[in-house]
Amino acid sequence: IFYRDRKVLFSNISIHLTRGIILFLATTSWTYGLSTIHLTAATAISSSIPLIILVLSIIFLQERIVWQRWLAVILGLAGIIITLNPGSDEFDTKIVILLLSALLFAILDIINKKIVCKKSILIMLLYSSVVVTALSFIPMVVYWISPCFFELFLLMILGINSNLILFCILKAFLLVDISALATYRYLELLISYIASYLIFDQLPQSTILYGGIIIVSSIIFIIKSEYKN
Fold first, then answer.
1. Could you give the CA distance from residue 194 to residue 23 in angstroms, rounded to a whole number?
2. Whose CA is closest to 69, among 178, 210, 200?
3. Cα gap 111→108, rounded to integer Å
4. Closest CA relative to residue 112, chosen from 162, 43, 61
5. Residues 6+ positions from 70 with CB-CB distance below 8 Å
6. Is residue 113 within 8 Å of 173, Cβ to Cβ?
7. 180 to each of 69, 121, 127, 206, 225, how far by Cα in Å?
8. Which carries the bigger pLDDT value, residue 3 or residue 218?
9. For 147-156, b where at least 16 C-beta lie within 10 A, e where not — what string?
10. How far apart are CA 125 and CA 171, in angstroms?
11. How many Å apart are CA 145 and CA 139, to the nearest integer?
């Protein structure tokens, strides 16, 4: 019994440690990429997560992917390609870092979907926060810049919202297939359009707008098809 309990404990620690490491690497690469690339373009890259999730969910979760989900994700991917405009002279090779971040976030979603029915959501959030905090300690000491009161306030909002986002995602994983949720991530791109204009006074380029129209169309299509099913 002791051996079995120790084995279960070690397995739990390994799972949560792996989740924390992936979350740390994904968040770090996303933050770095966001500091060098336009907000809307960065969000467009993160919108590649649904396609990655779709492929991984077939391999690791054995989910049955209906044609409507495939079509919605493919349309969304086409919108992302148009948004990024890779043939343009303004295309930034740093998007590779953001693509790595998207891959890591997709892998994390698959792991979370795999274990969320067996673990407490609050415990999962706690372990993720602890591991990410521990891994962030060394770079924090090296690059620490004391924030002002307003920046502390923004960081507090960021911390609360990030945990709320993860809580909602994990809760959704309990209810439906992960592939059914993947396409809704494209909403982030639409929100980034609005935020870029209202907060940073940045108007998206025409290619970003055209890509956004296709992406939003894929969202509407999958919502209607899932509702009928």
1. 27
2. 178
3. 5
4. 61
5. 54
6. yes
7. 7, 20, 27, 30, 10
8. 218
9. eeeeeeeeee
10. 12
11. 11
Q: Which helix (H) or strand (E) holds 29?
A: helix 2-34
Q: Of 100, 104, 118, which Cα lies nearest the Cα of 15?
A: 118
169 token code pair: 């995602």
**Paired tokens of 100:** 């790595």
Instruction: Quote the DSSP letter at residue 1.
Output: -
CB 218 within 8 A of CB 76: yes
- Per DSSP (E only), the strands in the chain are none
Amino acid residing at 198: L
Q: pLDDT of 158-207, one tens digit each?
A: 888 888 988 888 888 888 777 667 667 667 767 777 777 777 776 666 66
| Distance, CA of 76 to CA of 180 (rounded, Å) | 14
Is 212 strand, coil or helix?
A: helix
What's the whole-model pTM score?
0.76
pLDDT tens column, 130-148? 999 999 888 888 888 888 9
Task: Report the amino acid identity of residue 140.
Answer: M
Q: Residue 165 class from Cβ within 10 Å (0-12 exposed, 13-18 middle, 19+ buried)? A: exposed
- Of 228, 215, 222, the C-alpha closest to 84 is 215
